Protein 1
Amino acid sequence: MIRFNNDYNRGAHPAVLEALAQTNSESYGGYGIDPWCEKAAEEIRKYLDCPEAAVHFLVGGTQANFTVISAALRPYQSVISADTGHIHVHETGAVEHCGHKIHALPSRDGKITAAQIAAEAEKYCTSGVQEHITQPKLVYLSFTTEYGTLYSRQELEEISDVCRKYGMYLFIDGARLGYGLGSCMADVTLKDIARVSDAFYCGGTKCGALFGEAVVLTNPELQDHFRSHIKQNGGMLAKGWLLGLQFYVLFKDGLYFEITKKADEFAMQIKKAFEEKEIPFYIESFTNQQFVVLENSQMEKLAQKYVFEFEERLDDNHSCVRFCTSWSTTQEEIDALTADIRGLK
Amino acid sequence: MIRFNNDYNRGAHPAVLEALAQTNSESYGGYGIDPWCEKAAEEIRKYLDCPEAAVHFLVGGTQANFTVISAALRPYQSVISADTGHIHVHETGAVEHCGHKIHALPSRDGKITAAQIAAEAEKYCTSGVQEHITQPKLVYLSFTTEYGTLYSRQELEEISDVCRKYGMYLFIDGARLGYGLGSCMADVTLKDIARVSDAFYCGGTKCGALFGEAVVLTNPELQDHFRSHIKQNGGMLAKGWLLGLQFYVLFKDGLYFEITKKADEFAMQIKKAFEEKEIPFYIESFTNQQFVVLENSQMEKLAQKYVFEFEERLDDNHSCVRFCTSWSTTQEEIDALTADIRGLK
Amino acid sequence: MIRFNNDYNRGAHPAVLEALAQTNSESYGGYGIDPWCEKAAEEIRKYLDCPEAAVHFLVGGTQANFTVISAALRPYQSVISADTGHIHVHETGAVEHCGHKIHALPSRDGKITAAQIAAEAEKYCTSGVQEHITQPKLVYLSFTTEYGTLYSRQELEEISDVCRKYGMYLFIDGARLGYGLGSCMADVTLKDIARVSDAFYCGGTKCGALFGEAVVLTNPELQDHFRSHIKQNGGMLAKGWLLGLQFYVLFKDGLYFEITKKADEFAMQIKKAFEEKEIPFYIESFTNQQFVVLENSQMEKLAQKYVFEFEERLDDNHSCVRFCTSWSTTQEEIDALTADIRGLK
Amino acid sequence: MIRFNNDYNRGAHPAVLEALAQTNSESYGGYGIDPWCEKAAEEIRKYLDCPEAAVHFLVGGTQANFTVISAALRPYQSVISADTGHIHVHETGAVEHCGHKIHALPSRDGKITAAQIAAEAEKYCTSGVQEHITQPKLVYLSFTTEYGTLYSRQELEEISDVCRKYGMYLFIDGARLGYGLGSCMADVTLKDIARVSDAFYCGGTKCGALFGEAVVLTNPELQDHFRSHIKQNGGMLAKGWLLGLQFYVLFKDGLYFEITKKADEFAMQIKKAFEEKEIPFYIESFTNQQFVVLENSQMEKLAQKYVFEFEERLDDNHSCVRFCTSWSTTQEEIDALTADIRGLK
C-alpha cells in the first residue's frame, strides 16, 4: 500500500535524521537554551524582515495553536476563525479548553474574507452590551488552509488591515506553510507572512521534520513570558536542541522550501490526472492536498493499492476523498497513482 | 417613562418583600443550610413527579447555566445549543471560559429540533477521529426561548428521546419558565419539564423574586458534590435563606404561576394592539416578550413614553424591538401602551 | 438560642431593608447601570483620596476574590497569601479553578509580613529557571484577617512598598473591613486602605447589607474591561441597583462605620468577660471575632444557650471556638452571654 | 566540559536512534494508531501483572503529569504532593492552570508518608464544611523523587492502602523510574509499581529515549476517553510511532533497566569518592542524582571541568549542588570526575 492519506506518515528528511545522528552523543543545555535553537532562529529570521521577531520551537500544531492563542488573549476575548479552521474542528476544543470562544465564520473552501472579519469585529464595537459578549481579539487563518487553498497577498493584506483597524492580532497557522509558499499559484513569501501577521508558525511535522513547529512572534506584545506559557502548557521539550537542530537543517540552505515545492509539483501531477479523467474536485487546490469527488467504484478500485483519506459521503454513489503528497513522496509513487487514475473506469 | 424593556426592572413581588421584612431579624444557618431552603425545595418538588430531585438555589442565570454545565461535563465534552441560546450569545463566553465548546445549531425563532440535535450527535458517533473532536454530551434549551417562543410537549419529548438515545443530558434554562408555562399556547407543565430533562431551573429574577434561580437536578448523576461546584463558582450565597424564603413564597400557593400567567395575558393585549395595527412581528410569540418590526417614525413616537429594547436594525426604515411585560406590569401601563399603539400613524 | 456563630446570620440593617421597600416598585436599568450604583460609588469614593477609583458591586466574597484575582493575572502568574487566607482554605480552590497557584506563607495569627512577601518575590527574581515556576504578581491580605487580627498602618505600608518594589499588586479582602476599621486598636482609615492597595473591597454581606461586596479598583491597570470579567464569572446581578442602593444607605452618612464599630465594642465586652474568667484566647483579637480556648465542660454549658463556631479540637479537654458579634448584635444578647461566661465553673 | 548537570543532555541510546533510522522511510498511521505503539504497549505490559492496563505515549513529563491529573479529577478535587514534588515546584503551575489545588505536604528528602497523607485525607472527611474546601482525590509521588530518594515496597504499600481507604488515586511520576528500579537499594519492581498505583509512567526522556513518557493507566476508571484528554492538552504526537518505536526498543529486551542500572552504579562511584573525601551529602541518595554540599573553592575547582547543577546557597561558604549520571555517562567520565573529587583540597 502506498500512503497518500496525509503528509505526516513518514519519519524525517534524510538530512534531518543525519544531523540528529551526528549530534547524538553531544551534550547540550536543556529546554531550548542551546546553540541549535539559537542558530535555527537566526536562519528563520533571515527569511523575514523583522529582526525583533522571537522564535520558539514547539512540538506540535495543536499545542502551538492553543499556546499562542491563550498567551495572546485575556479571559473575555475570543478568536475569529473559518468554521473549517483546524482549531474549530479537529483539536478537541483545545481553544475553548483554554477558556476562549471561537467565532466560526462560514467558509466553503477554508478561507474567510476581510469583509467577514470586519463585520464580526464591527458587531462587537457597535454592541450596546459589550460586557455580555466576548471581544474578538485574534484572527486565526491557516496557510495553506485545511482544504489546500491559498490566500493571495492582497487578501492577506486586506485581512491584516482589518485586524489593525480593530486592534486584533493576526495569527497564521503554518502547519503546511511550506506547501503554501511552494505552490505555483502562491504570490506571497515568508517575508509577507511575517509582515501581515502578529504571529505565525513554520510547520515542521508535515514539512520534513520528525516533529516540531517554529512559532514566530513578530509582534513584541506577544513575546512577553512566552517561555512560561510554553512550559505551563506542556510544550517545552527537555531536549530542545532536537527541535532547533531540525529547523536549522531545514532552513539553512532552503531545504524546507525545496522539498515542499517538490511535493506541490507532485500534487499537480495528480491533479492533472484527475482533470484528464474529468473527475471533479471537491475544492480546487494548487497545493499538496487534492480533494476529489470519486464514485464508489473508483474509490474501491484505488483503495486496493493506495491509502487516502475519506472525507465525507456526498450521496449514495459519491464521496469526497483527499490525496496528499509530502516531502517524502517519490516520482515512482506518483507515476503509479496517476497511471491508476488514468486507468479508472 | 414606562419600562417595557425587560422583565427585571423592578424589585420583588410585594409578598416576597414582606416575607423578607418579617424575617429580617431572625437568625439562620449560612450557605443554604436553613429551614427556608428546605421548605422551598419541598414546595417545588410538589409540582414535580420526582421525589429524588435535588433543588439548589443560585443567585443568577449565567451562574446557574455555567455551574450546571461545567458540573455535568468532562473536559472533552461539549454542549449543543441554538445559535440564539443565551449561553452562546449573552454570557461573555462563560461556558467556554469553563472549558467547553458550544455546538451552535442554526435557529431563527430560538428553537432547535430533535432532528438537528440527532444529526449533531450522530456526527460524533460516526466520526473516525473521535479523539480529535469534542463529544456533545449536554443539550441546552431555553423555555421560553430568548425570542419568547415555546417548545410543545411533543417537541420536548422528541428531544428528550434523542438525548437519551445518545447518552446526552437535557438541560432547560428556565429563566423565564413561569412565562412559558403560563402562556395560552403552552401544553406542558412543570411535571413535564422535570420528566423530559435531567436538569432545569425555575427563574426567580424575572418572575417575581428580587433575584435567584432554583436549579432542579432530576438526574442523580448530576447531583454529586453539586454544592462544591456552586461554592467554587462563586454562586453560594452566605445568607442562603434569602433565596429559599423567596422561592417558598413564590411556590407555596402557586403565586409564581399566577403572576407570570398574568404577565403573559398583558403581553397578549399588546400583541393584539400590534395585530390590529397590522404591525408585523419579527417572530410570533405567545409569552411575555413581543418582538415587532417598527418603522422609524413609530419607534420614535413610542420611545417618547416607553422604554423598550432595541434589537436590530433591519433596513433603513425598520427595526426589530422588544416589548416585555412582567409580574410587575399593571393594567394601567398596558392600557396606556395599547392606546398609543392604536394611535400610531 | 442566641447566635454568635458568625456575622452573617441575620438579614439587613433596618435602614437598608427600608430603602429596598421604598424603591421596590420603581423601575431601573439592569446590570449595575443605574443611579443607585452611581451614587453609591460616589459615596464610597468620598472616603478615599482616589477620584479615579472604579467601584463595582458584586454579590459575594468568594466571587469578588476570584474575579479580581483572575482579572489581574496572566496565566503564568500566582498569588501570595497567608496559609490561613480565605482564598486558600475556604473557597473550594476557586483561585486554582481560575488557573492560578497560591503561594501559602506560614502564619499563625492570619497575618503575613513584608519580609515574608519580599523573600517569596525574591525567590522568583533570582531564580535561574523562571519559566519553570510561576511569577508571584498579586499579594492577598485580609483586613481584618480570618482570625480577627489587624494590620497596622506601618505594616500595610511596608507590605505596599514591597509590592511596588517587585511589581506586584496588593489586593485586600475587606469582607470584614468595617470591623477592622472600627476596632479600638486600628490605626488605619479607608483612605489608607485605598492608598496602600491596588484593589480592595468593602464587605456588605457581613456588615449590614443583605448581601454584596463593593470592589474598589484604585489601580487603573486593573480597571480594563472589569465588567466583562464580572459577567463572565457570573457576578453581574441583573437587578444591580439592589447592590448600589444598599451601599448607598450604608455609606451615605457613615452608617457602615457606626454599626461595625458598635459590634467591635460588643466583642470587647465578651473579651473582657473571658479575660476576667482567665479563659485563654487562641489568638488575641480586638475586632468582632473572638477565638477562645474552652474546656469541654465550658463549651457544653455555653452551647445550651448560644450558637458559636467550633474551630478545632486542641486536646482531649480543650477546643478552640469562635464568638462573633455583628451589626445586628444587641446589648441584651451581650449581657446574657457575658453573665453566663462569668458564671462558668 | 563534561556534563553531569542533568540526565537529559544527550540524544538517545544508539539502539533507539538506529531503530528510528531504519524505519525512517516506512509509512505509518498517525496519532499513535500504529504497530509500534501497539508492540511497545505489549512489551511494557509484560513487566506488569495487569493485562487490562492501558498504555499511552506522551512527549514529556509536565504534559504527562497534568494530563493524567486533570483527566482523573473533577473540578472540586485536588492533589496531594510533597512540597518538593515536580508538579508543585517546577511545572509553572500547570496543575493549577488545569484548575486543581495542590496540597503540598512538608518533606525534606522528597518523600511523604502514609501517615501524612492519611491526615490530610482525614481533614476533608471530618470537615463540617466540605463544600468550602477541595477534596483530595489523587496522591502524586515521584519515584525516584526529585532528590534521588526511593520509596520502599512497604512504604508504597502503606500509601496505597491509605489511598484505597480514602478513595484516592495513586499516581506515580516515573520520569526517573528506571533509575529508581535500578538502584542497589530498591526493593520494588515494575510489577509492584503497577500493583500499588492507579497510574504511573515510565520516563523515556531521561532514560534512553530522545523524548517520550509511557503513561500506564492500571485503573480502568482512568482509561475512559484518555486519548481525547491527550489530544485536547496538546500531547498527541502526529507521528506517534516515533514514541512507540523508542519504547519498543527500550523494553523489548530489558535495555531500559540495564542502562539505568548502569547509571546508578556510576553514581555510586561518585558517591564513594565524595564519601572518601568526607564531603557531606545534602541528602543521601542511592540513585543517579547525587546532592552534595561543596565549599565554594571546591565548587569553583570542579566547575572548571564539569557542568553540574547549582541547587541552593547554604551559607557564605557552602552550596548544595547536584551531580547526575545517565544512560549516556561513560566510565571515562566517571573516572575523570572521581579522580578530581579525590584531588580536591
Note: The mean pLDDT of chain A is 97.
Protein 2
Amino acid sequence: MQNEILQALAARKSVRVFTDEPVTAEERAAILEGAFQAPTAGCQQLYTILDITDPALRHTLADLCDHQPFIEKAALCLVFLADCRRWPLAYRAAGLQPRDPGPGDLLLAVADACIAAQNAVTAAESLGIGSCYIGDVLENAEAMRDALHLPDHVVPACMLVFGRPTDQQKARPKPARFAEAAVVCENTYRDRTGEELRQDFACRAAAGSQVDFDFDRYIQAFCKRKYESDFSREMSRSAAVYLRAFL
Amino acid sequence: MQNEILQALAARKSVRVFTDEPVTAEERAAILEGAFQAPTAGCQQLYTILDITDPALRHTLADLCDHQPFIEKAALCLVFLADCRRWPLAYRAAGLQPRDPGPGDLLLAVADACIAAQNAVTAAESLGIGSCYIGDVLENAEAMRDALHLPDHVVPACMLVFGRPTDQQKARPKPARFAEAAVVCENTYRDRTGEELRQDFACRAAAGSQVDFDFDRYIQAFCKRKYESDFSREMSRSAAVYLRAFL
C-alpha cells in the first residue's frame, strides 16, 4: 500500500547536520501544533515542552548530552518533559490534596511526551525540516535539573533538534530496519534464539546492502560502543535519580 | 501553515467504536511498516510488538485493562513492549556477558516503543483506520506477565487497538487541546500559578465550545474519576513491579 503519508514515514531519517536556514515562527508553530494534536491520555497532555532558545543553555545541553555540538547548531531544540506535576497543581488549585505521583504516572507521562514528540517529527518532516532525537537527555540528572530548573516529578522523556538537512544529509541512506519476524510476535512474547538473532541481523545487513556482514564482530563492537559505554551506564545511574522521586 | 500531513495529524482522534470491517493483511503490514520506519535509538528498535489475534487472550487483555470490552472488538490489537532483552541476548549470542539492563535502558526503550507506536497510528489514519491507545496495559503486572509470557526486562509501554470508525465516532468532535502557553516554556521549567491554571483550563474549555465551564467542579470530578481512581493507583503499584527488575 502507498500514499503520501506512508511515503513520508518511510522516507524520514535522522538529520544531524543542518544548513543555517532558520525555522520560521510559522513552522515552529506548526511543529508544536502537531505535538499538541497527538493522542494523549485522558486529554491531559502530560508533558511540558521546553523550547531552548538561549545559546548558553544550548551549549550546556550539548555538553550534558554526551558532548554533541550539533545540538547547538540546530534551528530549533525542544525538550519533551514527562510532567507529573501540572495536574496535581491544578488539583491543589481546586482545593484538593492529591496523592504523590507514582511510577505508573511517570511511565504514562513518558509515553504521552514521546507520542507528542513523534507527531512533532512528522509535522516537521512535512515542512522539509529534519530532526534528531537525543536520548542522552536522560543523562546527568543533577546537572540537567539545575540547568532546566526541573522540580521533582518532571523528567526529560526525550529531546529533539530540528533544522534543514544539508545536501550530504539528504543523500545519506536511511539505515535498514529489522524484518517483521525479528520484532513482532503473535499473542505472546518469545525469545529469539541465538540462531534466529544471527539471521535477524544478517537480514537487516542485507536489506542495507551491507556485504561481508560479520555478526560477532558487529555485535561485539556495537556492545562496546553503546551498551557498555560510559554514556549508557550514566543514563541508568541518572534515570535512577529521577525515578527515586516516584518510588 | 497547511499541508496534507499537518491536516491528518490535526484531524486524528481516538476511536473506541469500530465497524465489523477487518483490517486487511496489506493494511496491517503498512501499519507495522510505519512503526518500523520510526526513529529509533541507535537503530536498535528497542521494542517487541505483540499482535494479539487470539480471542481468549483479547478477552483477558480487555479485562486486565480496566474492563474495556471494545478492546475485544477491535480489528487489530498491538501491544508495544519496551524490550531490554533482545539486544543483551544478541550480545550473549556473540559470546559476551553484558551487564543487566538498568532504568536508563528501560526509559529509552519505552520512548522507542511509543515513538514507533505513534507512527503506527499515523500510518493507520492515512488508510482510514482509527486507533486508540490503552494506557491501562501498564496495570496488573503479574497477570499481564502471565498472559503475555513477559520475561524480566520486557515491559508494556503502550497498547493500541485499531479499526474502522463508526459514523457516530467520525462525527464526534475532537477534544480541544491546551494553548501553547499552558504547555511550552522558554528555556527553563516554571510552574503554572493557580490563576494561570484556571485560565489554561478555561481557554481549553472555550476552544472546545464548552459553556459555563466551572474549574473547581471540573477538576474535582476529573481528579476523582482519574487520578484518585482505583485503576490509576493500580497503575503505579503495577509499574513498580516492572521497575523492580531494573533497580
Note: The mean pLDDT of chain B is 97.
